[in-house]
Design brief:
Order of helices and strands: HHHHHHHHHHH
Number of helices: 11
CATH class: Mainly Alpha
Strand content: under 5%
CATH superfamily: Tetratricopeptide repeat domain
Radius of gyration: 20 Å
Largest sheet: none
Number of domains: 1
Structural class: mainly alpha
CATH architecture: Alpha Horseshoe
Helix content: over 70%
Mean pLDDT: 85
Low-confidence stretches: 1-9, 49-54
């Protein structure tokens, strides 16, 4: 039931809230994506030792360690000229890793790093391709949901809202019980569905957040959107 405070909001106030929220999420979705990726990659790091023992050779492990170190050096470099040089060298090394260890964790991590570099350069088309390449080679790994999240964000940055929506839906359909960031994915589904005037689909996505993750930071935002959709007569 809508609270008295929410019910008393005017439609114009609610629309202003939505515009502000939409602008914030649009301008910061890459930051949200990066946070999601960092957390997941941190979790993956715990499992790397086991993955290596199970199948990767010492050479692959060494390649992965160098890849991590090189990316850390690239990320921390402040001088623009030096950073460009490190980027060029890193991409060559990453491509070599992908080719040499195709299907292995080292190759998957290389693709993720390349996608993140593309994102930093706002080369969204290349970023989406890298994420999708990673997805095709890691459907059963921890990196698959990261790849879907990245592909969805990159597609949206290009204005390809249908592709973005499809990626988010695939994410929640396949990985809802095995990865983090799912409430954000549902909110993105709701936001994108509103953009296509699929208000019923948007409502279902927001309600899923409220019912499944009552303590999530996304729940308050989802609740506000439900109130707006209903008070505007867009859904019952």
């Amino acid at each position: 039931m809508d609270s008295p405070v929410h019910s008393s909001k005017s439609k114009s106030e609610q629309k202003t809230l939505y515009v502000t929220l939409s602008d914030f999420l649009r301008n910061n979705r890459v930051a949200v994506l990066i946070l999601f990726a960092v957390i997941v990659l941190g979790v993956i790091g715990v499992a790397v030792g086991t993955a290596i023992k199970d199948g990767q050779t010492k050479a692959a492990a060494a390649s992965l360690e160098k890849l991590d170190a090189d990316y850390a050096a690239y990320s921390s470099e402040q001088d623009a000229t030096k950073k460009a040089e490190l980027e060029k060298s890193f991409v060559v090394s990453a491509d070599k890793t992908v080719k040499q260890w195709n299907g292995k964790y080292a190759a998957q991590k290389a693709l993720a790093y390349k996608a993140k570099i593309d994102e930093s350069n706002k080369d969204w088309s290349s970023a989406e391709k890298e994420w999708l390449s990673l997805l095709s080679s890691s459907s059963g790994s921890y990196l698959a949901p990261v790849a879907l999240q990245g592909a969805a964000a990159a597609a949206e940055e290009q204005g390809a809202f249908d592709r973005s929506l499809a990626d988010y839906k695939k994410l929640v359909d396949k990985y809802a019980s095995t990865t983090i960031g799912i409430p954000h994915a549902y909110f993105s589904i709701g936001r994108l569905s509103e953009g296509t005037k699929d208000y019923a689909g948007a409502l279902a996505a927001y309600q899923k957040i409220v019912s499944t993750w009552p303590d999530s930071d996304w729940t308050k935002l989802a609740t506000d959107r439900i109130i707006f959709l209903k008070s505007s007569g867009l859904v019952k």
